[in-house]
Write a structure and sequence with these properties.
Elements: E1 16-19, H1 30-33, H2 36-39, H3 43-64, H4 70-84, H5 90-99, H6 109-118, E2 122-127, H7 131-141, E3 149-152, H8 163-173, E4 180-184, H9 187-196, E5 199-203, E6 219-221, H10 227-232
Helix pairs in contact: 3-4
Amino acid sequence: MTNSAGTDQKLRGARACVFDAYGTLFDVASAAQRCSASLGDVTPRLAALWRDKQLQYSWLRTLQGRHADFWQVTGEALDFALDALGIADPGLRERLMQLYLTLDAYPEVPAVLRQVRAAGCATAILSNGSPAMLAAALDHAELKDMFDHVLSVEDAGMYKPHPSVYRLACDRLGLPAAAIVFVSSNGWDAWAASAYGMRVFWCNRQRQTRERLPGNPDDEGHSLSELPALLMG
């Protein structure tokens, strides 16, 4: 699915594909889902509120100049969500945090990465996650060898969508922004990378409304499985 006529050629010739991790490669709702026996009907509400506060806290910390790594932010967001839903269970809190280190990868991810690499593109992750969080997730999903670079915002000292985060990918890959296809399921992330100058594939898994922000993704689909054909033309 392209976002306008003719856009299916815009991703061809890229030298690297840079992937967001959480929500793009890894299902952020899977930790709560694995605790559904304990959470019951509140499972989807907890998953959504946890994610919303996690992102809000990352943005607010960047605005305030009060950076903390994503593990701390994730824990603080979970504490808010549990409190808001009236759940007081330290054991459940610890289990949810540990499960966040082993989130499920979306089913199409391994095959897509193999195809992208076979097309001659370097592969990288650019994520809010801390290095330890990303290493744990990649080990669990057995994807570690599928990436040439795993980049954390910790090296920039602030979170997406600050431009310095996208600059980090260009610097590490030694490529101009226009030579990179950035892939994210998060609309705000996709728009920000486009505004920075990267070519962008928005993996719009949740059929979200298009953002009204600077930038404009070059292509849009509902699964990562649509990406390789767009890269190869």
